[in-house]
## 1
Amino acid sequence: MHSISSPAFGGPPIGKTTTQHHHHHHHIFPHATVSGLQMTTTHHHHAITHSLPSDKIEVIKSLEPWVEQSILPFLKPTDESWQPSDFLPNSSQPFDQFATEVRTLRDQSAMLPDDYLVVLIGNMITEEALPTYETVLNNYDGIRDETGASASPWAKWTRGWAAEENRHGDLLHTYLYLSGRVNMRMIERTIQNLIASGTVSVCSQDPETENNPYLGFVYTSFQERATFVSHGNTARLAKEKGDPLLARICGIIASDEKRHEKAYIKIVEKLLEVDTTTTMLAIADMMQKRITMPAYLMNDGYDLSLFSHYSAVAQRLGVYTAADYADVLEFLVRRWRLEKLEGLTSDGQRAQEYVCGLAPRIRKLQERSHERAQKMEQDGVKFSWIFNKKVML
Ligand SMILES: [Fe+2]
Ligand SMILES: [Fe+2]
C-alpha cells in the first residue's frame, strides 16, 4: 500500500474541516480553504466510530454472494503467485554462487542515488505496516472477520488480499537488506513505531473512516491506485538508473496493486449501483477530508517531520506527486462515471458537483506546498535510513 498525498506535497488543501462535531458527516462540501501544512498531530478526540446505520450494514451483508462471485476471483491462487524468493539470490546454493548473485545485486544497487533510496525505503516501510491495514479493514462494519478464519466472503477477501500484500514488504525489505546501502536498524525502528502507531486515512480533524465500509472502500480504491502509480514509477526509475532487477521487483508489486485496485473499484461501483446517494456522499466526504498515505504516522525517533520529508522527495523525483493525486481522482471519477450518476438526492447532487469539479482545483494548488517545504529546508534533510546522509527535498 501506499498512497496519497501528503500535506508536504500539497495534499490538496481542500475543504478544511472545521471543528464542528459531525455526527452527520456529509453536509458541507465546498469549503475551499487553504489549510497549509498541518504535519504533526492528528486529533483523536471526537473520533466517530461505527457511523454506519444498521440498514446499511444489511446492504453490505446482502452483497456477500456477489463478493464471492465477482470479487474473490481477483485474488490469485498461491500456485499461480510469484514469491519474493523468485526475485532474490538463492541462499541455499553453494556459498560462492550465492555470493556471486549478491554481488551482482549490489553492483546494480550501487547505481541508485540517495534520494531514490529514501523513496524506496519509505515505500517499503509503508508496505511493512500491513498488520495495521488488515486491522482497519477488519473493523469496517458488515465485513469484519469475526473469528480470524470466518467463511464470510468479505473476510476471505481481506485475508487473501493481506496474504498477497505480505509479499510486497518481504521482497523490498530483503532487496534493501542485501543491497548494503541502507541502515536496516533505523528502518526497522521506523517499522516498529509505525505498526505501533497505526494509521489515519484522511488528514482532517476526524481522521477516521469511522468503521464505515462506504468510506473505507473509497479509501482503498484510491490507495491501491496510488500505490500502483508509486511502485510503477520506482520501477521506471530503477531501470533508468541501471538496476533491472529492482525494476522487475517494483514492477511485479505494481501489478498486484493494479489487480487490487480493480477489485476495490468494482466494490465501490457496486455500492454506487445499490445505494447511489450514500456512496456518492462517502466519496465526497473522503475527498473533502483529504486522503493521506497510510504511513502518515511514520517516525524514526529522530526526524519529527519524517513522513513529510519522505513525501517531498517522492514529489521531487516524480514517484508520487500532487499531480498524481489529481490524476487518481480524475481516473476514479471517470471510472465510476460520477458525472452521469442519476437518482441522487439534492445532498447527493452537491456531493457529485463537488467531486467532479475537484481535480482542476487540486491541480491549481498543487506545487505550492512543495515549494514551501523546499524553502523551509533549503540545505536538504538528513535521513537516518541512509546513515544520515543529506537529501534535497
Ligand atoms: Fe496495496
Ligand atoms: Fe502493497
## 2
Amino acid sequence: MPSSAMPATGRPVDGHAPLAISATRLRKSYGDKLVLDGIDLHIPAGSVFALLGPNGAGKTTAVKILSTLIAADPGSGALHVGGHDLAVDPQAVRAAIGVTGQFSAVDNLITGEENMLLMADLHHLPRREGRRVAAELLERFDLVEAASKPASTYSGGMKRRLDIAMTLVGNPRIIFLDEPTTGLDPRSRHNMWAIIRGLVADGVTVLLTTQYLEEADELADRIAVLSDGRIAAEGSAEELKRIVPGGHIRLRFTDPAAYRHAALALGEFGRHDESLSLQAPCDGSQRELRSLLDQLDAVGIEADELTVHTPDLDDVFFALTGTGTGTGTGTGSGTGTGTGTRLPDQQTKETVR
Ligand SMILES: Nc1ncnc2c1ncn2[C@@H]1O[C@H](COP(=O)(O)OP(=O)(O)OP(=O)(O)O)[C@@H](O)[C@H]1O
Ligand SMILES: [Mg+2]
C-alpha cells in the first residue's frame, strides 16, 4: 500500500487498516551529527514492521522517539502513535504502547515474579489483578519454574522472555521491540518469533528493529532499510529482494579438463578459473535449471557441485547500506519497489569474470 494513501491520523483510508504508527519527516540530530534525516514511517495496525540498518543507523533513536523517551527535532512532521499526536498527548501514547528496549529492563536483584509485579504496580493494576496478569504471563513465557529465582540467575534467553513479558503487563496494542533476539541461540530465537507471531495473531502491532535479515524475512509484513539517516528502501521482503539483481547458478568442478569443456559448452557463463567454477544468472526456476543440465548432459559432463542462489535480504542489505560484501553476484542496477526506490551506485558484490 503506498504510504501516500494513508493519513497521519490513524484513520483508515479506502478500507485499509488504520495506522498504528505514522511518522512524517522524522528528524533527529545529536550535536552536528544528523541521525535521522526526515524519515517517513506508516505502519498499519495489526502488522509487523521491521526497521533494518547497520550499527549506528538510527534504529534505536527512531524507537526512542516514537515511544516518547526522547524528543524529535523541531522541523519534524506529524508523529502519531495509536492515533495520538506525540507532541500533544505523549501520556496517551505511553498508555497505548509497550517498549522492550535494546538493553534489558530486567532488575537482576529481584525475582522474575517480582519484576512482573513491579510492572503491574507501575501500570496501577489492583493487587489481585496484577498477580493474575503476572502469573498468566509467566506461564505464557515458560517462566513459572524460574519465577521465584533472582533474575541474575536467568540465561540470556530467559531474561529476554521476561523482558517482553514485562512489556505486556499493560496489555499494549502497539509494541516496540528493539533487537528482541540479539544474542539468543537459534532455538530461543525461534521461540521468540513464535511469541511475536502470537502477539500479532492477537491484533498487536509490532515495530521491531533487527540486525538479522532472516528475522525480518520471517516476521515482517513490511521492512524499511535505514542507511545514512534515510530510508534506502521499503517494502515487503519479496519486494526488497526484487530490487537486487537476480539469482544465479554456480557449477564447480574438481577436474580442470571438465571445467574447460563445460566452459566451452556453456559459452556465455561467467568463468572463475581459480575455483574452477562457472556461474550464470538464473531465476531459480526448474525450467532454467533443466535447460542448463541438459546442455551439460549433451557434452557428457557432470559438475561436482551445483548451487542455486536466489537473492535474499542479505543481498538487499549489502546493496543498500554499502556495509560489506555480500554473497551474491549481481552486477546490474535495480529499479525500485512500489516506493520508487533506486539502488545506490556503490554495490559491493563479488563479481566473477
Ligand atoms: N545520546 C546520544 N548522544 C549522542 N549521540 C548519540 C546518542 N544516542 C545515539 N547517538 C548516535 O546516533 C547514532 C544512531 O544511534 P542508534 O543507537 O539509534 O543506532 P542503532 O541503529 O540503534 O545502532 P545499533 O544497531 O548499534 O543498536 C549513532 O551514531 C550514535 O552514536
Ligand atoms: Mg540500537
## 3
Amino acid sequence: MSDAPELPKEEEEEREEELTPEPEDQSDDSSGEEAAGNTEMDFLRNLFSSTLGLGSADKVLDELTLDGVAQYIKSGKCKNILCMVGAGISTSAGIPDFRSPETGLYANMQKYNLPYPEAIFQIDYFKKHPEPFFALAKELYPGQFKPTICHYFMKLLKDKGHLRRCYTQNIDTLERVAGLEGDDLIEAHGTFFTSHCVSFCCRQEYNLDWMRDKIFSEDIPRCDKCSSLVKPDIVFFGESLPVRFFTSMKMDFPRCDLLIIMGTSLQVQPFAGLVGRVSKGCPRLLINMEKAGQADPLFGLLGFGGGMDFDSEKAYRDVAHISTCDDGCLALAELLGWKVELEELVKQEHARIDGQEKEKEKVGESKGAAAEVSAAAPVAPEPKKEE
Ligand SMILES: [Zn+2]
C-alpha cells in the first residue's frame, strides 16, 4: 500500500500552485497571501481563456462524447483516473441515501422525538441521545451489501492500472466490497466499515460485524474497554472531514488525467468543489441522471470557476452521459472492449457474495440466531431453509 509512487514534496507543491489555485479552499492553506495571489492569477487566467478562447488549446478529447473518452483512455495517455462518486452509484444496490431529503427520511422522524430532524445526524446531539440514530440505522440497514456494475467498473479501472483513487461520498462500504482497498479510496463522508469509541483517551476501533450485531440487538454500542459510546466512522454534522480527504486531494487532483464523476449532483461542499481542482486540460466525464456541477454564470465571472461546461460553444473537455451509473459504465466498458470482462466480474462476485450470505445464514441457524440474521437481510433472495 505504501508503494504508490509519490512525487517529492517540493515538486508536488510547485505543481499544485501551477495547476490548482482554489479560491474556495479555507481548510488547508496556511498561506493566505499566497492563496490570494493565486486567486487573482486564476481569475485573470479564466478571464483570458474565456474571452480569448485560450482554453481550446488544452483540448485532449477528439470529441466530447463517451466514445471520445474511451478513445482517450485507450490512447495510453490516461494513466491517472480519479473517480468522484455519490449516492447515485448505490441506488441500484438498494442502499437508501442516508442524508438526502428525497428518501422522505426527515418527514418520518416524529417517532424519535427529536428537537428538529437534522439533530439525528448532529454530533453533539448524538453524544447525549444516541438512541434515535441507532434506531434509524437499524431501520435503514441495507439488506445486503452487493456492489453494482458501476462499483465493479471502478475495480476494473484499478485492475488495469488506470485508477489513481476513488473519492466517495457514500458510507455504505460497497467500494470496499467490490475490491477497492483503503489506499484506493477516500471516504469523504466517512464509512460504516469501522467504528470508534468516542472517548479521546480510548478511541478503540470496532468492525462492521460488531456494530451490526449491536444495531440489530438494539443495544446502544458501548466500548468494551471504557464503556463510552461507540460511533460508526461516518461524518456527522459538526464533525470535520477525514484528514486524508484534504491531504490526498492536494496530491491527486493536479496530476489527474481524467475525472469520472458518477451518481452525484455535486451539491455538497467541499466535495463538489473537487471538480475545479484538476488542471484546465483534464477531461471530465459526468455519468448521472441529470447534468450537474455547471458553473453559475455569476460565480464564473467572479473567478470562482471550475464549474462544468457541457454545452456552451466554449465547451472543450466536459462530457455528460445522462443515464444510470450502471448503464453508463456498461456503455463505456463496451467502447473500451471491456464489457464481457465487466459482466463476468459482476457475475462472479455476486455469486461469491451470495455464497457468503448462505454461509452466514447456516452459522446463524446453528447458533440459534437465525432471527437476527434474517432481520439483517430483509431483502435476501434466499428462501428460508426447511427444518
Ligand atoms: Zn473506549
## 4
Amino acid sequence: MTLKKFRMSFFLIVAFACLYLFMMNLIEICIFCQKRNEATSLTIITKNGTFLQLPDINCSRTPPFLVLLVTSSPGQNEARMVVRQTWGKQRLVTGKRIVTYFLLGTTENQNEQTSVTAESQKYGDIIQKDFLDVYYNLTLKTMMGIQWVYKFCPQSRFVMKTDTDVFVNIFYLTELLLRKNRTTRLFTGFLKMNELPIRRVFSKWYVGKDEYPGSTFPPFCSGTGYVFSTDVASQIYNISESVPFFKLEDVFIGLCLVKLKINLEELHSEQTFFPDGLEFSLCRFTKIVTCHYVKPHEQLLYWHKKAGNIHLDCKQKY
Ligand SMILES: *[C@@H]1O[C@H](CO)[C@@H](O)[C@H](O)[C@H]1NC(C)=O
Ligand SMILES: *[C@@H]1O[C@H](CO)[C@@H](O)[C@H](O)[C@H]1NC(C)=O
Ligand SMILES: *[C@@H]1O[C@H](CO)[C@@H](O)[C@H](O)[C@H]1NC(C)=O
Ligand SMILES: *[C@@H]1O[C@H](CO)[C@@H](O)[C@H](O)[C@H]1NC(C)=O
C-alpha cells in the first residue's frame, strides 16, 4: 500500500467514525423518526375498545392467587407453546392457584389473525384487543392486561407482567410473596430508581423531548418482570387516564405509581430479578424469580432440568 492510499483510507475511516458519532448523538433533529402516538389513543383503546379474545376463567368462582400476564405477538406461537408447557402451565403451588394468560394485539396478516383466534379457542388463555401489535404499542398492551384484571379478575391476589423470553420461577416467586405477607399496595421487581431518557436518535429506546420533557424517569421496575398486588391494578387503571401517554410501558406504570404514591419495594434482600439475563445453573435458578433472554429451547431445557425446584438440595451456595 502506498502512503497516499494509506492516508486516504485513514481519512475515510476517521470521517465515518465522526459521522457515526454525530448520528448517534443527534438530539433534537429527528428526520427519520415516525410520527408519535397521539396521547388520546390510550384512553380510546383501553377504555372503550372491546376484548376480541378473553381467557377461559371465572375468577369469582376460581380466584387465582397469581395471574401471570405475558406480553406476546401474534407470530410468536412457538414461544407461547413453550411457556404453556413449562412455567406457564396452570397449576397449584403450595395450594395456590397460578394462571398464565398472553396479551396480544392484532395484525394485518389475515392468516396470523385467524390462527390466533383458533389458538384462543383451543387453549383459552389469550387476552386480545383491537390495536396494532407493534413495539411502540406495548403500553396499550400492558394497560389492556391491567384493565382485564380490573374488570374480570379483581378476586386474584397478585399479578405479574412479564414476557415470553423470560424464565419465571413460579415456585420461588410464590414462596417470596407468601413470606412478604403483604396483599395491598405492593409493587416489586427489578427496581430502576435513577434512569435517564435515552436521547440518541438511533436507539430502540430513543425518547424525544416532545414525548418526555423530563430529564429523569420516575422510579420504575424493569418491564421484563414486575409483580404487584391486585388492588394496584385497579388503582393504575383508574389513574392512567390522567397520566400523559408514554410509549415505554414500564416507565408509564412508574408515572402512574408516582401519582398513586405507591413506592417500589424489593421482594428479597438478594437480587432475584435478572433483566440482563443470567447464565444457567440449576442451583442458582432455584433462588431467582426471573431471567431474561431465554430462548424457547432453553425454556424447555431449564424446565426439564427442574429449574425452579426450590426443594433441590443445593449445598454449595450457587
Ligand atoms: C361466575 O361465577 C359466579 C359464581 O358462581 C356466577 O354468579 C357468575 O354468573 C359467573 N360469571 C360468568 C360470566 O359466568
Ligand atoms: C398502535 O395501535 C393503533 C391502533 O391499532 C394504531 O393506530 C397505531 O398506529 C399503533 N401505533 C404504532 C406506533 O404503530
Ligand atoms: C401477616 O401479617 C398479618 C397482619 O399484617 C399478621 O397478623 C400475621 O401474623 C402475618 N403473618 C406472618 C406469617 O407473618
Ligand atoms: C379513582 O380516581 C378518582 C380520582 O381520580 C378517585 O376519586 C377514586 O377514589 C378512585 N377510585 C379507585 C377505585 O381507586
